Write the structure tokens for this entry.
Amino acid sequence: MWIKTLYREWIGRFIFRKLNIGIGAALLIVFLLLGLVVYNNFYSILEKKELELLTFRTEKLKIQLLDIMERFKYDSMSLYQNSNMQTSVYELFLPENIPANREDRKAITELNYIKNVMTHMLSRNPYTSAVMMYRLQDERLFVESQQQKYRVNPSYPYKQFFESFPKTYQHPYFGSSEQLLAPADRMLYIVNPIYNPTSIHPEQVYGYHLVTLNTLTMTNEFDSQSSDYRLIIKQKDAMLLDSRPDGQSDWNVSDDLISRLTIDQYQIEILGISYKSNLQSKLSDIAVRILFILGLSWLVCIIIIHLIQRFIVGRFNQMSKHFKKVQRNPFTQLMPVNGEDEISDLMLRFNRMTQELQNHISQVYIAEIRERNAEFIALKTQIHPHFLYNTLESLRMQAVISEQPFLAEKLYHLGRLYRWMLQPTDDLISVQEELAHTTYYLELLMLGKSNRIELRVISELNLENCFMLKFTLQPVIENAIQHGQLEQYDNPVITVTIKRESHLLFIEIHNNGKNISAEEHSRLQHLLQTANTFPEQHLGLKNIHERIKHYYGNEYGLSLPENPSETQPFQLTMIFPYKR
């Protein structure tokens, strides 16, 4: 009950308070929807960019793995090639070439040669952390690493490890291990058997050539932070690398961003994963900023609306008090008028009405009173153009005083355009003047729009000495903007080419907007050539064409090109007599 009482006392009798509450609620809803749209769009853009970055990183890793494989295969093939000074590494793995004593000179020379070969392999392969060669005959292991900290792990069963590989021609073999070298680091390894290349028996293996890839290096290549991303490398069902093994394992039902690539010839699958939870956490600060900015904007709008309405209500209250005085005494003194806005104009007109009312009361005959009343009603509905000129000029001066040159310039253009449209001048004006006021119109049309339309004029004539029918170019430009849908295209341009041929003045208008079809071109050409057009076929270009023909003659008017291209935007030519 008390709510109804408060509403009736503070809101119900005041229309502007109702309006203020309605506008505030509407603005709140609009700002909330705007914030939601901005947040969703920003999230969509961020998610798209994140997926592009994830795909780029995954593709980069795939290229690196393919490069590593190509280099490894090249190194494996080089083991079978003889140099000018040395035998091939393969020959050192044959049973008849193995030295009996590891301490003799032949064994030391062999060790140095193999180490030099492995060092050369390491220098050519920046992604390889270590190179290993294992000889089955004497169970000897050769190791060379990029980092001196890696060495042979004495507790690792190398014999069982190498003998576990299948004796087939399907190689190289992939795997991962944490104990392959000391200290224990998880590494990926690639293995190729060393066998007799001339034999048809794949089980005749003399040793193995192995390279290791440090998984930490690969993970850092994928993401140096390793907090928002996860890298998984699998071969068939075997897990070779998982940068976050404690995370989710089934990615077929995940909502996170996933980039999945495969290396078919090696049956390797690479999964790059970005967690949406981390992505959403990045947006939390942005969401707070959006809400703060929109909330502050809403509050500023409410304050501005309240101040404006308070100012307007104060002046209306002044008018209301004066109305009551006039109601009691029609011969009350006139209301004081301040300012030059719409309310001031309303006060002036009420004062005029009061004066007319006093005159009417003073009249003797009712007929004269009625006649005066009719004139008064006609006077009330009339707006003198000079008042609008003065109002626009006053607003422009206020903008200049307030140091708002952009607003002042647009008000100046609007005043010039309005004065030019209503002033009783001759029908013929210079082309320069028509272009100037068309430019004013275009500037006002583009007000508040980001995709501005450029009006480009090309002519070698003195346009001040060329004349055309007034108010014929601006409607054509407006038609080009609307039907060409220029505001939907990047860098929209309307080009006006003015040239003279003998006694004729040609004004060619074309734009880079929507293309015109052959059917539309035929329809426009038919309408321009038809003598009379019915109301249901009303066309702005037709009206301009008829005006020019009526003023100058049938040989003048609008013209369309005969054979337009299907990919050519709309073009139009205006034909006037050339008169200086």
Notes: The two ends are 82 Å apart (CA to CA).
